[in-house]
From TrEMBL:
<protein>
    <recommendedName>
        <fullName>Laccase</fullName>
        <ecNumber>1.10.3.2</ecNumber>
    </recommendedName>
</protein>
<keyword id="KW-0186">Copper</keyword>
<keyword id="KW-0479">Metal-binding</keyword>
<comment type="function">
    <text>Lignin degradation and detoxification of lignin-derived products.</text>
</comment>
<dbReference type="InterPro" id="IPR033138">
    <property type="entry name" value="Cu_oxidase_CS"/>
</dbReference>
<dbReference type="GO" id="GO:0052716">
    <property type="term" value="F:hydroquinone:oxygen oxidoreductase activity"/>
</dbReference>
<dbReference type="InterPro" id="IPR008972">
    <property type="entry name" value="Cupredoxin"/>
</dbReference>
<feature type="domain" description="Plastocyanin-like">
    <location>
        <begin position="162"/>
        <end position="314"/>
    </location>
</feature>
<dbReference type="InterPro" id="IPR034288">
    <property type="entry name" value="CuRO_1_LCC"/>
</dbReference>
<dbReference type="Pfam" id="PF00394">
    <property type="entry name" value="Cu-oxidase"/>
</dbReference>
<keyword id="KW-0560">Oxidoreductase</keyword>
<dbReference type="InterPro" id="IPR017761">
    <property type="entry name" value="Laccase"/>
</dbReference>
<keyword id="KW-0677">Repeat</keyword>
<dbReference type="InterPro" id="IPR045087">
    <property type="entry name" value="Cu-oxidase_fam"/>
</dbReference>
<dbReference type="InterPro" id="IPR034289">
    <property type="entry name" value="CuRO_3_LCC"/>
</dbReference>
<keyword id="KW-0052">Apoplast</keyword>
<dbReference type="InterPro" id="IPR034285">
    <property type="entry name" value="CuRO_2_LCC"/>
</dbReference>
Length: 575
């Protein structure tokens, strides 16, 4: 090959490597436009202008296939800064499009736009998108449906129809004002006024019988319900009266199917379930679909109401009001035994087509405490509304409460200039060990900083997440951006490094992007750090994220071109 042709070849190869990942052979590119705009919406007889995408609440559904490329132009037409996070999408080498504000990008400011451009790699099932700045995701969210590659069947009976079921929270007040007030006073934020199913509160709330989601089914058919918990601050139990649900997929990864009457789903999680309609000839009836909180924290700190939707059969004789109405039974609000039992049933499919590639060895072990804490009121003798009149609520991992930077961590990492933005010294273990689930220490104050943990490319990582009893044991749904992980173990009380690893499941552990750290217990996860970039990890209870229960991983580039973070796009927003 002549020198000139060699230069052209190398130049072309480099261009291909620098382009956003192209869709695989047989895949397509799918284009969407998201106009973020205010829209008047009425719920609970309360009308207000809320941020929406394209005037829809919930927002539009993205439908794609494994291997497809998705391109979404987001235009900000409201006064708040905006980002969109494609929750659970792996974003292989495309961290610029992940979405968390000040982590992978600066926000899209009023009147500005940004094009997100990513490929769906090795995932199929249900994910969702949501805003990722402050509490803007209260109304800015919608489903992502990932179908298998063309010609590839699902590993369960093909459903007659699939239906997204998105749980949310409705606030009569402005959620941004609620969290701003809480951060100012140091107290807990006001709770939501209702839960919603597909944006509707349903007949159990005042003034809402017309705002009810109705699922019409045909006798004898099977339906795939794509459950998504987009609520801000509440884990939820969900059940359908007189119908068994078969869990087949969580967080866009297939699982060994199992039957259940109740599903537990935390904010940030998705669960695909099959619902088999009754056979023809069954007595006509109306069946409620209910969701209400699983809450392990202090009473009064969560919305204890119940949202209802209606499952009704096509061509049923008689009017709905005259038919028998069946209501499902749900666990009590703090049923930790149910939570543990449900989590234990989740197992990866673990077949040749869908293997569970669990790290067998561990290069980089971490032990993180997660929980609440305090920080002194500002100004010395000033009083505030935290746990005491001299403290404010805070939250932390390894007692480090994360301070958000004012520029994007990913840009600082890529430019090799982290000075003044972050430090690479996030503690791998608690600096001051204590009896994590026993009597809390006298000093519950947290430390603050913008600290990250650095991982070499493709390192095998284990993180044990330990709940603490500081200000009360509580379940924390932890979400990791940029990766799926395997949940290899969990238990009650304090994690014992000499005993518990021998009990880990390294054969078929469930694969997730969000896991509930048990109240008063621990969970162990493993993953390969095969995705270079900066990746957020945080509690998906938005109030805890606001209080600092978050951190970031920096994954360095690998030696090969296809193991390196792609360069930033030209339209990357500036701070």
């Amino acid at each position: 090959m002549g020198a000139h042709r060699l230069v052209l070849f190398l130049h072309g190869t480099l261009l291909l490597l620098l382009l956003p990942q192209l869709p695989l052979a047989g895949a397509v590119t799918r284009y969407y436009t998201f106009n973020v705009k205010l829209q008047n919406v009425t719920r609970l007889c309360n009308t207000k202008a809320i941020p929406t995408v394209n005037g829809k609440f919930p927002g539009p559904k993205i439908v794609t296939r494994e291997g497809d490329r998705v391109v979404v132009k987001v235009v900000n037409r409201i006064q708040h800064n905006i980002t969109i996070h494609w929750h659970g999408v792996r974003q292989m080498r495309t961290g610029w499009y992940d979405g968390p504000a000040y982590v992978t990008q600066c926000p899209i400011q009023t009147g500005q736009r940004y094009v997100y451009n990513f490929t769906i790699t090795g995932q199929r099932g249900t994910l969702f998108w949501h805003a990722h700045v402050s509490w803007m995701r209260a109304t800015l969210y919608g489903p992502i449906v990932i179908l298998p590659k063309l010609g590839v069947p699902m590993p369960f009976p093909k459903p007659h129809k699939d239906v997204p079921i998105i749980f949310g929270e409705w606030f009569n007040a402005d959620p941004e004002a609620i969290i701003a007030q809480a951060l100012q006073t140091g107290g807990g934020p006001n709770v939501s006024d209702a839960y919603t199913i597909n944006g509707l509160p349903g007949p159990l709330y005042n003034c809402s019988s017309q705002d009810t989601f109705r699922l019409k089914v045909r006798a004898g058919e099977t339906y795939l319900l794509r459950l998504i918990n987009a609520a801000l601050n509440d884990e939820l139990f969900f059940s359908v009266a007189n119908h068994t649900l078969t869990v087949v997929d969580v967080d866009a990864a297939y699982v060994k199917p199992f039957d259940t009457d109740v599903v537990l789903i935390t904010p940030g999680q998705t669960t695909n379930v099959l619902l088999r309609a009754k056979e023809p000839g069954c007595p006509p009836a109306t069946h409620l679909m209910l969701a209400r909180p699983y809450a392990t924290g202090r009473p009064g700190t969560y919305d204890n109401t119940t949202v209802a939707a209606i499952l009704e059969y096509d061509a049923q004789p008689g009017k709905i009001k005259s038919l028998p109405l069946f209501r499902p039974s749900l666990p009590v609000f703090n049923d930790t035994a149910f939570a543990a039992d449900f989590a234990a049933k989740l197992r990866s499919l673990g077949t040749q087509e869908y293997p569970a590639n669990v790290p067998r060895r561990v290069d980089n072990p971490f032990f993180f405490t997660v929980g609440l804490g305090t920080t002194p009121c500002p100004g010395g003798n000033q009083t505030c509304q935290g746990p005491t009149n001299t403290t404010r609520f805070a939250a932390s991992m390894n007692n480090m409460s994360f301070d958000m930077p004012t520029t994007a961590l990913l840009t600082a990492h890529y430019m090799g200039d982290s000075g003044g933005v972050y430090t690479a010294d996030f503690p791998a273990t608690p600096l001051e060990p204590f009896n994590y689930t026993g009597t809390p220490p006298n000093n519950t104050n947290v430390s603050n900083g913008t600290r990250v943990a650095v991982l070499p490319y493709n390192a095998s990582v284990e993180v044990v997440l330990q709940d603490t009893s500081i200000l009360g044991a509580e379940s924390h749904p932890l979400h990791l951006h940029g990766f799926d992980f395997f949940v290899v173990g969990q238990g009650n009380g304090n994690y014992d490094p000499d005993k518990h690893p021998a009990e880990f499941n390294l054969v078929d552990p469930v694969q997730r992007n969000t896991v509930g750290v048990p109240a008063g217990g621990w969970v162990a996860i493993r993953f390969f750090a095969d995705n270079p970039g900066v990746w957020f990890m945080h509690c998906h209870l938005e109030v805890h994220t606001s209080w600092g229960l978050k951190m970031a991983w920096v994954v360095n580039d690998g030696p090969l071109p296809e193991q390196k973070l792609m360069p930033p796009p030209s339209d990357l927003p500036k701070c």
